[in-house]
Amino acid sequence: MEIQKTIDILTEIRKNTDNPKNKKYSEKFIRLLTEIRFMNNIKPKAEILDSALKLIRQNFEIEKDNIVVKKELNNFIKFLKAEFSFTIPWYYTQIGALIGLMVTVFFGLLSLLVGLLVGGIIGYFLDEKARKEGKKLKTELSEFIC
């Protein structure tokens, strides 16, 4: 039930704020919470999730006039990654491509594309493994590479 209470607060924030960034991140937060509500692998740690959501709601109540939804969303994504091993879409692909890019800097410009490609492919397969294990979120959160 904590998920629904948090969604209600975020809906109010989205309706009442004039800040377009808060509206955008409130919508992403709501989509993320809705997705989590229907996941089966959070049941064993539901109490931990509820306490994290209570803390987020308390932070929203404390910061009534100066709410920064992006900060709370970023903290919540880090919490999900730490407690539930969830990853955002294309997380491993992005990390693999970056590592491949950095490694190939030592070998010259021609191998730059090869390193980027190899790192991206390895990351893609790690993303697919996370999806099969039910640890990959579907909500697009490309700003948040944790």
Topology:
Blueprint: H1 2-16, H2 20-37, H3 46-62, H4 69-84, H5 91-104, H6 110-132
In short:
Keywords: Membrane, Transmembrane, Transmembrane helix. The chain has helices at residues 2-16, 20-37, 46-62, 69-84, 91-104, 110-132. By secondary structure, the chain is mostly helical.
Q: Distance N terminus to C terminus?
A: 27 Å
Structural category is mainly alpha
Order of helices and strands: HHHHHH
Strand content: under 5%
Number of domain units: 2
Number of helices: 6
Main beta-sheet annotation? none
What portion of residues is helical? Answer: over 70%
Query: What sort of overall outline do the alpha carbons produce when their principal axes are compared?
Result: elongated
Features:
146 residues; mainly alpha
Describe the structure.
With 146 residues, this protein is an all-alpha fold. The protein folds into two domains: 83 residues, no CATH class; 42 residues. It is 71% helix and 0% strand. It is built from six helices and no strands. Helix 5 runs antiparallel to helix 6. It is elongated, with a radius of gyration of 18 Å. 25% of the residues are buried. The mean pLDDT is 82. Keywords: Membrane, Transmembrane, Transmembrane helix. This is Glycine zipper family protein.
